[in-house]
Amino acid sequence: MIEPYCGLAPLPAELIARWNLDPALIAALVVGSSAHLGMVARSSQATSRKAYVAPLLGWALLAVLFVSPLCALTSALFSARVTHHVVLVAVAAPLLALPWRRSKLADLLARAAAAVFILHMVLLWLWHAPAPYAAALARPVVFWVMELSLLGSAVALWLVILSPVAPLGRTLGLLLGSVVQMGMLGAVITFARTPLYDAHRGVTTAWGLSALQDQQLAGLIMWVPASIPYLAVALVLLARRLDRPMIAHEPAR
What we know:
Distance between the termini: 86 Å
Membrane topology: Multi-pass membrane protein
Number of strands: 0
Pfam family, one: Caa3_CtaG
Subcellular location: Cell membrane
Oligomer: single chain
Shape: globular
Radius of gyration: 20 Å
Protein name: Cytochrome c oxidase assembly protein
Helix content: 55-70%
Largest sheet: none
Main location: membrane
C-alpha cells in the first residue's frame, strides 16, 4: 500500500514534529511564488507595494497548508482535510487571483462564467465523494491532481468574481451559488448516518473523536465557516455600490 502524500495519521504527541520538507514541494513553492510575483512586478497594475500583499499572503497560505503539520493532520482527521480545502479554495485562491482581476484572462473567463462555476462545483463534489477521495489518499499523483484541480478551478472562479467590470448581479449570483452548493455538500456530509471515508476509520479516536463525529464536524465546517469568505466579498461589493456618489442633476432654469 502506498503511503498518503502527507504521511500516515499522526498521534497528537507526534504532530508538532510532522513538518513536510519534501524538496520537490518546497522547490515548487519557491519557483511558483517567484514567477507569480515577477509577473505582478511586470504588470501595469503593480503601481505600489500593495500589489504584492495579496499574492504573498496566498503563497504563504499554500506553504502553511502543505508544509506545516496541518498536512499530516489531514491524514488523521477528515475535518482537518475539509478545513485545508476550504482555506485552499476560499482564502488562498482569491488572494492569488486578486492581482489578475483586470487581466485578459479574467475577461476571457468572464465570458464563460457559468461554465467556470459548474466546473469548480463538480470538482469540489467529486473530490469529496468517498471513492475519489480514497484514491487521492492512496496515490500521491492523484492527491496532487485533487489539490491542483481544486485550486486551479477556484482561482478561475475568483477571477470571474473579482473582475471589476463584471455585472454586480452576476457576481452576487456566483457568490450565492458558491455558498449554497458548499452548504449542500456540507449538509450531505453532516447528516450521513455512517462514516463515509474509510481512510479515517480507526485513526480519529486518538484525537477524541469517532470517525462519524469527525465527519460531522467536517460537514459543519463546510456548511458554515466555508461560506464566510463568499459572504464577506458579497457585502464588500454591495457596500462599494452603495458608496458610489449619485450624480446630481441641476434643475433646468
